[in-house]
Amino acid sequence: MTNILYVEDEESLAMIVSDSLQAHGFMVRHVTNGQQALVFHNKYRPDIIVLDVMMPLMDGFTVAKEIRKTDLLTPIIFLTAMTQTEDVVAGFKLGANDYIRKPFKIEELIVRIEAALKKNGQSMAPSKLIIGDYTLDCIKSLLTFGDSSEKLSYREVELLKRLIEQKDKVVPRDEIIRTYWSNDTYFTGRSLDVFISRIRKYLAQDERIKISNIRGVGYMLSVD
């Protein structure tokens, strides 16, 4: 799963772009200013950064300059309404991998993200995952068993995908909550238990699949 740090202070645009990227199988962490961007970059080390230029507290050029002091590898894509040639040149000199002018189409952004990741030696996460006799389509959010399919929510897809990717390994509860619900003040450990129970029901037709609760630690998906 590709983790994107998306830095944009325009809330309506950020919501549209975040939802679109998540629908295409990306994990998106959205922050609204440059100072938050630096904190999140240092804490989570994203696979790629999509960075607005004109923001409060710290502009995108300054953010990129600070990031490049310690991180020369993570791709950075600037999104900006600044269209002057000197602005584009300045962005690349600061270490940007790409520069997209606003307004843009989400399809263009996705293509640019994929290109930057491939150039950086990373590969896109597969769109379909197999677990037992089930197939999880991460793009369409469908869990298929034989001729029947179940439509999953975005968070259900992300949680199941994480468990599948870490098959036979314990995924810590704290890691799940921090990764997928860090911005949701109403989400609790009990809420996570509800999500796990729901996923167990989705997978119930294949008796070989088990999601074990490792008490006090987390969850582990296995196939006998």
UniProtKB/TrEMBL annotation:
Keyword DNA-binding on this protein? yes
Q: Which residues form the OmpR/PhoB-type domain?
A: 126-223
Q: Which InterPro entries does the entry link to?
A: CheY-like_superfamily, OmpR/PhoB-type_DNA-bd, Sig_transdc_resp-reg_C-effctor, Sig_transdc_resp-reg_receiver, WalR-like, WH-like_DNA-bd_sf
| CDD domains attached to this UniProt entry | REC_OmpR, trans_reg_C
Q: Which residues carry this modification: 4-aspartylphosphate?
A: 52
Please provide, in alphabetical order, the Gene Ontology terms of the cellular component aspect for this entry: cytosol; protein-DNA complex
Protein name (Swiss-Prot/TrEMBL): DNA-binding response regulator, OmpR family, contains REC and winged-helix (WHTH) domain
Organism whose genome encodes this protein: Sphingobacterium lactis
**Biological classification of the source:** Bacteria, Pseudomonadati, Bacteroidota, Sphingobacteriia, Sphingobacteriales
